[in-house]
Amino acid sequence: MQNKWLPYFLLLPATLFLLLFFLYPFGMVAYQAFATDEGVLTTKYITKMTSHWKFKTALSNTMWLALAVVPIQMVLALYMATIVSKLKKGRDLILYIWTIPLGISDLAAGLIWLAILDQTGFLNSLLVGLGITDQPTTFLGYQNKGTIFIAVMLAEVWRATAIILVILVAGIGLIPKEYYEAAEVFGAGGWKRFTKITLPLLKPSLQTALMLRVILAFEVFAVVAALGGTNLPVLMGEVYNRQFVLQDSHVAAAFALLILLISIAFTLLIMWLLRTPKEARL
Q1: 65: left (phi > 0), else alpha (psi -120 to 50), else beta?
Q2: Is the pTM of this model over 0.85?
């Protein structure tokens, strides 16, 4: 009897945590997005959000940033994790160096890249000093939105690839070495071992890393604020603007609810695409 209920007691703290810090705030945000201050249900705040001229731009920028950044980070992290797993000496040092950006906040990362790309920054000083350009170039001006987008991409790839790297290194470390040894005996090359052993057995880690990174990609804000300001609208930036600048908490809640729903949708999609054979049978 005691063993029967033990798993449920072990799950109780996590369940209470989710109820208190996820489901309850989710319900409050959803209620605020669909109810007036008097408690009358309405869709006017959703309409107000979708009809604003910045909505489509912010949604598009957020989606394109996620689609551009996450695949690059996944490929880089997978390549880096494979290299680290093969090292016999200096492995911890290399891993430590590669994960340094993990300890840097979003805003700090944005400010670092701002110091590089600003008109008076390091890159312009280098280009002028070498005689490549006659005068500083405005990389982050309002007329160069494409450059701002690329700058945010670079900052995000530099800052957040380490999140995926740490998860994948741990996942590769759990793969039994006997599999690789057996594959070598049968003459399997490096690419064959990678596609037939590493990738299939790394699916749970890839699933976790991809879900975490996609969710964080839809919440990008501080890096964009530092490098682009209002020149590159994103969904989380609109949440901040509505809540703290325009003091419109209902529309801010509508934007937050939209981000949450997009995150849930992509999480379910990733779980389905990267499901293990055992999960597929369920």
Answers
A1: alpha
A2: yes
